[in-house]
């Protein structure tokens, strides 16, 4: 069905969007499609107009973990209902097939979607100047329009998060004597 749609000129992004679901059907986490020899990350298109919130996905829901922008205050833990009038469940249905994993593992796809949502949204859906977000807190529903952010803003946010993490390893391994180890 994809081959039939390869019947006209298209942009690199259109070609990427067409071929990505085919490549993910191989179901190998190491077999990926990266345009223009960009092997280092998932940010390919619209890198100056990215979604400004860090989200966590679970099943057909998305929750706000934080904001990449300092001037945006939105409640962490709030559930995102829609983005630019697109229901979150529909956005997930569009993005999930574009994330790579081994076999039929959907857990890893959700982890990747949570980590790279802004990239996936720009690559596969749109990269507008701003985003209308409808969200629900424990108290009520609200909406706001927020400007897109550049890739550098997201990179700086992630670097700051990484610097706050402890450098101490979570596990300790000691070899007590021959054939005995303590973890």
Structure description:
- The structure is a single chain.
- This protein is α+β, with helices and mostly antiparallel strands.
- It contains 5 helices and 8 strands.
- It has helices at residues 12-24, 88-95, 106-115, 117-124, 151-164, and strands at residues 53-58, 61-67, 79-83, 86-87, 130-136, 141-147, 174-177, 180-182.
- The strands form 2 sheets. Strands 1, 2, 3, 4, 5 and 6 form a 6-stranded antiparallel β-sheet that branches. The chain has a two-stranded antiparallel sheet with strand order 7-8.
- The longest helix is centred in the last third of the chain and has 14 residues, at 151-164.
- The model has no long low-confidence stretch (mean pLDDT 91).
The secondary structure category is alpha+beta
Strand content: 15-25%
Q: Mean pLDDT, nearest integer? A: 91
The global form is globular
Tell me roughly what share of residues is in helical segments: 25-40%
Count of DSSP strands: 8
Kindly provide the radius of gyration, computed on alpha-carbon positions and rounded to a whole number of angstroms. Answer: 19 Å
